[in-house]
Amino acid sequence: MSKARRATMSDVAREVGVTAKTVSRVVNGEGPVSAETRARVLEAMDRLGFQPNLMARNMRVGARDSTVGLVIPDMGNPFFGTVAGGIEGAVRPRGLTLLVGSSEETAEGERSLISTFLARRVTALLVVPSADSDHHPLRAERAAGLPIVFLDRPPNRLTADCVVSANREGARSGVAHLIAHGHRRIAFVGDLSTLYTRRERFQGYRDALAKAGIPLDRALVETGHDHEAAAAAVVRLLARKDPATAVFAANNFAATGVVLGLARLRRRDVALVGFDDLPLAEVLEPALTVVAQDSAAIGKAAAELLMARLDGDRSRARTVEVPTRLIVRGSGEMPPTV
Fold this sequence. Notes:
Blueprint: H1 9-16, H2 20-28, H3 35-48, H4 54-60, E1 67-72, H5 78-91, E2 97-102, H6 107-119, E3 124-127, H7 139-143, E4 148-151, E5 161-165, H8 167-180, E6 186-190, H9 196-211, E7 221-223, H10 227-239, E8 246-249, H11 252-265, E9 271-275, E10 289-292, H12 295-310, E11 319-322, E12 325-327
Parallel strand pairs: 1-2, 1-3, 3-4, 4-5, 5-11, 6-7, 6-8, 8-9, 9-10
Antiparallel strand pairs: 10-12
């Protein structure tokens, strides 16, 4: 069987030495099949990478849909909600329906969702990768012509279309903004170091420090994967003998947590720049200065890539970088008080 096409039910039947009807019974759970035969069929399906064509089955009973599958890490993160909105606005005029599922930031969850979408024979696949995922198994799907686009983070062990923010340059500009207002002890509060976005933004932080001749102090680097972790991190940073006078929060959850931690400490003298805008950022006191991503543009760019592939574009995989912008509101402009 050619690796450039999807395995079929006939391929599985031939591999096991049974009829296609027997394979169909295993796939659909209909009709008698011995436990031994079922096990052999399932093993062959896994080995050949066979995905049941649920869309064809739906069409046989009168249902018709043309879908795009989107895997995101977290349904509760407003960033990904806006990304999904950008995608949906672009694909809907083409008669495509967007299906969204959460991997919960795990490789296992991501694999399961991708398998589900492939089983439906989705028209295209969009993925925000988890930190430890492996996308090498998707090479056959991509070679067979399935449009696959990765968002926010590049794929692992696969060359494919990708849309990301200008993470490094955005972080550099945010930290440089704090330096321009007199800060030299600038803390970094970010996500897990295994994430591409965290690594890129941390490098931007380091770039800004290096350009200003400020040595990196590892004691000022903290992890805040969620609100409470980030709040606890800023408490630790400000309890030091030589505390930070400013904080760069490298994602929206980290920024929310830092705001929460500063409020608990009743500290309004610490400058803060966040990466990602926040709801109600303008009504905080002081209002939050941010490096804003254009999440809707990220979604739209990903949708345009996949639609170009659907229209026959067979050029080499490419990466689109969407610019960020610094929004000055007040929290990042406070000078150091110590």
